[in-house]
Amino acid sequence: MTFSWTPHRFSGGALALDVANSVVLRADAERRIDRFADAATMDAFPAGANRHGWERELFGALVPVDPESRTGLLALREAIDRHFRAEALGVGKPALLADLLDAIAATLRRSGGRPEALDTATARSALMLVARPEPERLKICPNCHWLFLDRSRNRSRAWCDMAVCGNRAKASRHYHRNREETRP
């Protein structure tokens, strides 16, 4: 099956969240898809982020991680997801923050001075998220469960991507409402 990094895959609002969202259906062990399990798909992520990502102006044109750094990127991704998911749920723990900061530090030590590498830029993006002034803008999409930043003026954004998850939720409500109306 061919996979491409479309704009929807970069709806997290921060590179660190887009990397964390590279696991689809994270909570469903049977249907879970890790887009970074395939090295070629992981290597294609920077090109997709360069086309569709939010933070190119901060990190420049991203390049893939070195093959020996892939495991470190996966560890960083998981630390990002654990910490920011707990924060979005309002149950953040100092130990999760410590784990994230350890993963960030390990990534930055290992990066070898390549600021444009995906792992380094992801670590920097995660640091920026840790220091963000408005933690309540971090949300979890009720449809796909991806992490995203709500950058709307009134903080009312409900889905990671209105064109995908928002439409699916609205279509589901419409279907169930019509189904209820037609029952005898």
Structural commentary:
With 184 residues, this protein is mostly helical. The protein has 7 helices and 4 strands, in the order αββαααααββα. The protein has helices spanning 15-20, 39-52, 56-59, 70-88, 94-110, 118-130, 162-182, and strands at 23-24, 33-34, 138-140, 147-149. It is globular and about 65 Å long.
Oligomeric nature of the chains? single chain
Q: Tell me the number of strands.
A: 4
What string gives the helices and strands in order? Answer: HEEHHHHHEEH
Task: Detail the poorly predicted runs.
Answer: none
N- to C-terminal distance:
43 Å
Task: Write down the Rg.
Answer: 17 Å
- The helical percent reads 40-55%
Strand content: 5-15%
Query: Biggest sheet: strands, sense, closure?
Result: 2 strands, antiparallel
Mean pLDDT across all amino acids: 88
Specify the number of helices.
7
Structural class: mainly alpha
Strand order of the largest sheet: 1-2
Described by the principal axes of the CA atoms, the overall outline is globular
